[in-house]
Input
Amino acid sequence: MSIKDRKIVMTKTERTQKILEELERLYPNVKSMLNFTTPFELLVATILSAQSTDKQVNRITGSLFKKYNTPENFAALEPGQLEEMIKGCGLFRNKSKNIIAASRVLLEKYGGEVPQDLECLMELPGVGRKTANVVLSNAFGKNAIAVDTHVLRVANRLGLADNPTPLGTELQLQEAIPPELWSKAHHWLINHGRKVCSARKPDCLSCTLYQWCRNAQEEGAFAWNNSKTKL
Output
């Protein structure tokens, strides 16, 4: 009997530890794929990344940040001006308005500095919990788990979480994972979602997490289309 034909019996804590160790082995030296040099640039890039790829955002910010890279720069723009420069991103009209509005709030309330507080970040136009956590983690080195579609899907499939919502998944991941690994785990799960555990055709047979994966153990490698975890 091969290892992929038998179920591994262990506690949830033991299984979580094995998963984290393997993810770290698979994806060492992880970091944000968005290009930035300041917390403000990362804030703008992360707002732009909604419904857009990191590669697409980097292409746009590569030229954008050469001209505009401070709250003062963006606050002086009109939405139509910024739209022309970011139209390669999805929802570019709303993003243009939000980036300009957020820049003005930063100048009015925070002296042009990006706040290092979750609630303060979430008060900025266009900034939700995921974006705020990305900034806290990658710009300021704080312990945070940003839950995007990859993290939501992979965490629930593996059994690190059991919740269909980003917030619920984030809170469960915070309980399951040591705080000092939150930021790394965010990147590990994203990378695994992109490279192995894709939404439609997860490559279960080559996945080295198979023996600890809750869904794989419960439903088998060929039962994903009928999986109870629709993520």
Observations:
- The radius of gyration is 19 Å.
- The chain has twelve helices and no strands.
- The first helix runs from residue 12 to 26.
- The chain has two domains: 3-30+145-226, 39-140.
